[in-house]
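Subgroup meeting minutes
Present: P.N., E.W., G.H.
Scribe: E.W.

1. P.N. recapped why we're keeping a running log of single-chain structure predictions: easier to compare across weeks, and new members can see raw inputs and outputs side by side.
2. G.H. added today's entry (458 aa).
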Amino acid sequence: MKSEKIDERNRQLETESKKHIWYPFTQMRDFVNEKPVIIDEAKGCILKDIYGNEYIDGVSSLWTNVHGHGKEKIDLALKRQIDKLAHSTLLGLSNTPAIQCAKKLIEIVPKGLTRVFYSDSGSTAVEIALKMAFQYQQQSETGNREKTKFISMTQAYHGDTIGSISVGGIDLFHEIYGPLLFDSFKTESPYCYRCPLKKTYPACNLECLDRMEELMKAHSHEVAALVIEPLVQGAAGILVQPPGYLKRVRELCTRYNILMIADEVAVGFGKTGRMFACEHEGVVPDIMAVAKGISGGYLPLAATLTSEEIYQGFLGKYEDFKTFFHGHTYTGNPLACAAAIANMEIFEEERVIEKLQPKIEHLSNELKSLIALLHVGEVRQRGIMVGIELVADKNSKVPFPPKDKIGHRVIVEARKHGLIIRPLGNVIILMPPLAVSMEEISKLCEITYKSIRIVTES
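Output recorded in log:
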């Protein structure tokens, strides 16, 4: 009788999940014909659905969960905080976890960033960065009112708010909203596998950077800031920038007096093998956006960090109205900040970044077999971030047509073998929690190999 009630409950959940929820980045017409996977529990790097089936969390619950699910230290931090204070506005007031979290952030981000402005998602963190850069140019003594535009990259993804879409570069996501957006200058991404300049790395000598400099030289008088995903463009399909690229971008921004905004939402908190991607090349941006891994994958939290110079540009008399008129209801939420503090302490106490290095090497070795598959064009990796680009023809690099839904079919196949991953078009993304074990890495790669082969070679 008990199992019959459970079966009935599960069927009801499946029906109601399709009846009431509009899922993000999901074509609902197709989705309602599929059997949904409904996650009910999780521990470590393993997810469990309502039927008790277990899956490796191969994308760290959308690139957020860094220490695994049910991490005791974060659990206890939340339990302690809920007994004290769940929420209090940060508008003109403060709270203890928000202060402690800000202090901790400043200690670990690139030196030179001194101020923390909280929000609740990567999109809003970038939106805030854009508004800060614009307003700084309009009112700071060291600003320039003519600087009202932005430079961003083709293939860029910075979020889903109107401002962040305006500096995005993925037509599939952004083109339809064109009439709502402000214009921005676009510079070519270093997509070496499909170089838009028809060059080959490293013989190209990073000509894409020369094009960027030409753009800056022509428009620096009207550009407030450049926005970049440092080292890896995530939603573009894990496009990995060549060595030295990021450092050169910083140098160009400095040379042409353009603020640099680093969007570390996807790459931050260890996923590239360092705490922040900018650290790999000793880069300090003027403004940096962080989210996703900041709370260990527990609660929505984001932060936009700035240099002291940017912060000073907003100071003045009350009647000068230089205030940054922006805020969110849950800005600096005590529960989220408590989780973030525990998350950052774990990095330090458990030497997470140090212990991650052999895992990155093991992942690299396990991925080597995939490149031999008939329809794998390229395997891109930086740290624990992996993009596997599938092609209809390996020699010509011709992609599979969208109607074939190859990426989607691969991830559905992977679920049958106990792995949750996601596609970005024809690119299969792997991004497990930093806490993933060597054995789980091997199994993740084995299932991915098997799933790609079944779908593309059968």
